[in-house]
Amino acid sequence: MVGSDENHPGVIRPTNIQGASQARVGKFAAGKGHNRRALSTIDRNIIRAPPYPCVVNKRGTLSENYGLSNKNPSVPAHRPITRKFATQMARQQQQQLPKESKKPAQPVPVPTESEDYTVVDVDEYKAASDSPAQMFVQYAEAMLNEIDRMDEVEMEDISEEPVLDIDSGDKSNPLAVVEYIDDIYTSYKRVEGSSCVSPNYMAHQFDINGRMRAILIDWLIEVHYKFELMDETLYLTINLLDRFLAVTPVVRKKLQLVGVTAMLLACKYEEVLVPVVEDLIVISSNAYSRKEVLEMEKVMVNTLQFNLSVPTPYVFLRRFLKAAQSDKKLELLSFFIIELCLVEYETLKFPPSLLAAAAVYTAQCTLSGAKRWSQTCERHTNYSEDQLLECARMMVTFHQKAGTGKLTGVHRKYITSKFGCAAKSEPAHFLLEDRFSLGEENVGVVFCATQVSPGISI
């Protein structure tokens, strides 16, 4: 293509542009004989293809930047302009000039380094048609979609509850054995089945029943409280009692002796200062002799094959309370609820870990007034909220009747200020959405037995 007269060397001063970067920062020469190249050849001689897909757009209106009248008011003035689009607009302006006019068009100003400009990716402004309005609308829609997508991702991240590291604060405590704690509770969970008994073992007893067992355990809880024994001792006592009764027939007049002996064995395993045999005989109203207690002790340990190291609900309860980030109030209420379950024969169908998890869940619901089970609790207990509901509803019924009937040992213990008056808490009635889902016998438990303290009478 032959250039027009405007590009004659005598009219236009030769340029010294070595690349696109200099074209961006070039300045206009002033005076005669120092005019820039005509706009008709701007895309060929001045503006060269850059090594990267970006354009330079000076902020301002179309008429300010290019000397054009904005005939399309729908196109925003701050819209980024690509080189291709700027060239097309310049050519359209040149074609509108009279043919006889030989006056060169006004050169396109190039922003200097000191002026404000915006670098925009050209690929983001490709349009399906030549309409500038469509280009802008498509770009705006793409940006809005991207913002919505980022907001959705952000909301999903916020909604996910993180699982807390509950052992991070005990790394400097060697007694916490942080390095092995997960393996320890994995082992507890694996072997807890061996410490469980059949939930209907009373069917094999010919002279005792579940009501008599409840009377005995309610009394043992009072003895445990009077002797100020450790919590671990009580849970191990109940475990030894049930495991022995599950395999050995016992007459009712020896049932209290079995209970006293089970507590003696648990004290020897857990306590530092063990109550002497004479103390246990006195608390039993001298119903048995020292010789009978020691003989029953030998029978019991041989029947249980000296296996006293079993995971009780207590070890799981301690771990689960830590996962729940509990305070003293939640802790005492959880122990109150689970001790109510120790008395009830029907709770034997639940493994110790589920019983402990349900106690924490029920206590949380009781204090907060709503269902509450965090991802951290689910992770460390391995029980979901749905898996705990059956046991939790049963616990609520026990809580409702804790202060009524004849067996009120647990209620009297936890109504004192020493245990935070946990028994005064209002039960979580909202958990009982379907009262008949547990069976009619679980909803209305009636105790017909009588208790004689310090001994018991069956």
From TrEMBL:
InterPro entries: Cyclin (IPR039361), Cyclin-like_dom (IPR013763), Cyclin-like_sf (IPR036915), Cyclin_A/B-like (IPR046965), Cyclin_C-dom (IPR004367), Cyclin_N (IPR006671), Cyclins_cyclin-box (IPR048258). One of its GO terms (biological process) is cell division. GO terms for molecular function: cyclin-dependent protein serine/threonine kinase regulator activity. Gene3D superfamilies: Cyclin-like (1.10.472.10). PROSITE patterns: CYCLINS (PS00292). Residues 87-112 are annotated as: Disordered. Residues 311-428 form the Cyclin C-terminal domain. Keywords: Cell cycle, Cell division, Cyclin. Pfam families: Cyclin_C, Cyclin_N. Residues 218-302, 315-397 form the Cyclin-like domain. It comes from the Eukaryota. SUPFAM superfamilies: Cyclin-like. Belongs to the cyclin family. Cyclin AB subfamily. Interacts with the CDC2 and CDK2 protein kinases to form a serine/threonine kinase holoenzyme complex. The cyclin subunit imparts substrate specificity to the complex. Essential for the control of the cell cycle at the G2/M (mitosis) transition. G2/M cyclins accumulate steadily during G2 and are abruptly destroyed at mitosis. This is Cyclin-B2-3 like. It comes from Actinidia chinensis var. chinensis.
